[in-house]
Amino acid sequence: MEPLPLSGSTFKDPQGRFEVGLIQDFSVGFAGNFPLFESPDGNLAYTVVARYRESDRALPELAIAQIAIEIFERGEGFKPGNFQTLGTGEVQMPWTGTLKIGGRSQPMSGAIVARQAGNQILVLLVSATAAGTPNIEGAVAALSDTLQPL
């Protein structure tokens, strides 16, 4: 899958936790304390969540996947798929869910990339409507290498 084009600049978390690439033409907003990046048509979005741990002791990939699931499991209809190990301390998993807008539910799907970076777990969540689904892999390909601790 061809990576989606990046804007050439990165987003640096105002709380000093991480940086991540900006996909070209995406807008930047916030959902609580976390950034929300959205495509102009609203069919593709991504966010990054950072979780601090008490130490930088290396976690097994299964534990990293579980932390990622626990971060997002309160989402509407969130169902994680099976994770795959990308490397030491890094996993990726597909997910499905729904988004309620007004009184209507819309199916969503996406991918999560989670990695340990010292005493943080950095979690990238890419989400898409049915129309945006073909771009999930391209977004992950573009962003996964840009996600770094600050």
Description:
It is a single chain. The protein starts with 5 loop residues before the first strand and ends with a strand. The relative contact order is 0.24. The protein has helices spanning 61-72, 136-143, and strands at 6-12, 18-23, 27-31, 34-38, 44-52, 79-80, 84-87, 90-101, 104-117, 120-128, 148-149. 13% of the residues lie in helices and 50% in strands. The chain is globular. With 150 residues, the chain is mainly beta. The chain has two helices and eleven strands, in the order E-E-E-E-E-H-E-E-E-E-E-H-E. The model has no long low-confidence stretch (mean pLDDT 93). The longest helix is centred in the middle third of the chain and has 12 residues, at 61-72.
Provide key terms for this protein.
150 residues; mainly beta; 3-stranded antiparallel sheet; 2 helices
